[in-house]
Amino acid sequence: MEIDVLKKVPISEQDPGVRAHNFDEVCLGYSKEEAVAEASRCLNCKNARCIQGCPVAIDIPAFIHQVSEGNFKEAYRILSDASSLPAVCGRVCPQENQCEGQCIRGIKGDPISIGKLERFVADWARENNIKPEPPKNKLDAKVAVIGSGPAGLTCAGELARMGYNVTIFEALHEPGGVLVYGIPEFRLPKSEVVAKEIDNVRALGVKIETNVIIGKSVTIDQLMEDEGFDAVFIGSGAGLPKFMGIPGEQANGVFSANEYLTRSNLMKAFDDEYDTPIRPGQKVAVVGGGNVAMDAARTALRLGADVTVVYRRSEAELPARVEEVHHAKEEGIKFNLLTNPTEILVDDNGWVRGMRCVKMELGEPDESGRRSPVVIEGSEFEMELDTVIMSLGTSPNPLISSTTKGLEVNKRKCIVAEEQYGKTSKEGVYAGGDAVTGAATVILAMGAGKAAARGIDEFLKNR
Amino acid sequence: MYEILKAEMLAENIWLMDVKAPRVAGSCMPGQFVIIKIDEKGERVPLTICDYDRNAGTVTIVFQSVGASTARMSKLKKGDAFRDFVGPLGQPSELCKESINELKNKKILFVAGGVGTAPVYPQVKWLKENGINADVIVGAKTQSLLILEDEMKAVAGNLYITTDDGSYMRKGMVTEVIKDLVQNEGHKYDVCIAIGPMIMMKFVCLLTKELGLPTVVSLNPIMVDGTGMCGACRVTVDGVVKFACVDGPEFDGHKVDFDQAMKRQQLYKTEEGRAYLKKTEGDTHKGNCSNA
Fold first, then answer.
1. Mind telling me how many Å the CA of B245 is from chain A's nearest CA?
2. pLDDT greater than 60 at residue B276
3. Is the ipTM of this complex over 0.85?
4. Nearest Cα residue in chain A from B239
5. Which tens digit of pLDDT belongs to each residue from A291-313?
6. B232 — contact with chain A (CB < 8 Å)?
7. A400 shares a domain with A332
8. Would you say residue A319 lies in a domain?
9. Domain check: are A418 and A367 in the same one?
């Protein structure tokens, strides 16, 4: 096919008017021909900056070169050498800030669609039933991995590849962590993509025990002393949702984004076949501007609501990926920017009837370097609503830190871990992902899981 | 899978089951709860632990059939299994954190209402095992809804049973029994632990506040994950928002905003009821019943 080397090969997506009413995946992915054509744009740089931009250091030019030659199997081998979850990363990584953000092609034109190519290769491998190879040598040491989200799966996959005997403990009834309860079906299909990636981790020999809450069902000290684990990786994730602390927030119809998304994604409340209810709402406001806010807004839209995102800064400061904001707008989600809620209005029966807000303007930059919003005097107004979804981030869950002897936490209650290998204050215990950094991205968690696997390997070898 | 070793109907719509769950049985304490999921499509149902046997690796649960998932759970028999059974969740009862000697000097009154008798039982039993006899008031709507009477008799100091309709033992609400015991019969208590329907706990707390009797309640708001992640179970205690699943389920009853908690419970109850009605009666309940 003919291409313009300065432009990305366009990718097909479901029509916005159609997809606003279903939970099927938005992006349809490249065909073989499109993938080969896009791959042919790669300059195959000797000193590839894209690799430095990748938290798990995939040999990007090498796998793309194989795609351009049509050697998809070899491309998959290169990918899965570095990443346990390529089909996930190809879909949800913020490539624009990472690999694609570094791409030389991006200086004059569009960077290579590295994420979409990664997705293509991983999907091709799945469709052709190609799995990563289990390790040839087996080691005796046992490692416990806490949490089966991106950090835990990556750490477990890496350690299993090295030959270790790995068991993942998951608190919920399904493995996958945020990939299952947080990110919606229309961005990351669960049975088709996530479950298959987890199967691949199992194929490496990793055992997964669900319904075990570390710190409650069993403690880390018990795992190490009574159950014979030689090392532990904590990848327990983000934790408790934040609320604003404004009047009316406990009214019926105010949800955390975590609750709304968990009901829809993990419990499949959108599907009538499942018992768990959800109150979709008819006029919904989502407060916050991150990827989770976009996921909640687009979920509410698909459940039939009229949805407005309310965010206190301007569009330029929205922490969500540009692609997510773009998709949300295409689907008909409204944005009330430079707006901050001051009170949830409640009817006589305790239900949400609206939200009082003020308009904001941007003042001086704050510590984060972003211009901080300042209230405009006399700008108060009311929105008529029946549902408010708070998407303001999370604070760490104390379940593990409060039950593990000698595990240091910082003033934000995040677990303290050395950046290079995720080593904590407790011997043999490593940590990474949101439990350490606070809410961040899938790929950063994976990077931390991979680094910790190296740290654990060093520790076990030098014991 | 978590096998059901015993399934018994205690009263109309109230079931008791012993479930094989060694990890939970090995670590749980009175006051904590579990979350149960019957199968892939079921809800995550939170239930307070009624009893446990560490050696046998079993946990006893008692539940009332109120929604879509509990209705299906009630159909399970010995030999069937739950897909998921996770715990223990929440904080153990405050009692378990005090020293036995301190507890021995205290007069403790338990007030149990309806199916709330189940979570009261392990606490009374735990005290008995530690040589402490606590008084227990059990309230039921009517005699046929009274549960665990013999079990409770075996572990309680004095057991006072009352039914709303007077069909068995005393007649009237649990609050009247508290008044009788404290004001007319001269009993002195240092602490009261009340577990039952939200409305009962509210009125017990109003009374015990008047009587100057510190009171602990165990809240049962609807939850999704039960580990602190979703925030559905938030309650206001002493003006501060708490998550019942990680901070509770027990709280100082005199500080709980019961009116708000009851309203919040309503949201999910009607939603859940709606899901159930939709299933049994088709699409007739798709309208906005919940806003009524």
1. 11
2. no
3. yes
4. A245
5. 999 999 999 999 999 999 999 99
6. yes
7. no
8. yes
9. no
Interface contact A216-B83, CB threshold 8 A:
no
Note if the pTM is more than 0.80. yes
Which site among A217, A258, A275 would you substitute to test the B interface, given the most B Cβ atoms closer than 10 Å to its Cβ? A275
Domain of residue A102: give its range: 16-127
For residue B141, give the nearest of B126, B155, B161, B124 by alpha carbon: B161
* Strand pairing class (A207-209; A165-169): parallel
User: Chain B window 258-287: which residues touch A at a Cβ cutoff of 8 Å?
Assistant: 260, 263-264, 266-268, 271-272, 274-275, 278
Q: Do B41 and A273 touch (CB under 8 A)?
A: yes
Size of interface A-B (CB pairs under 8 A): 125
Same domain, A148 and A252: no
Chain A residue numbers touching B243 (CB-CB < 8 A): 240
CATH number, domain of A192, equals 3.50.50.60
* pLDDT for residue B270: 58
CA distance A78 to chain B (A): 36
- Tokens representing residue B43 in the block: 């809800």
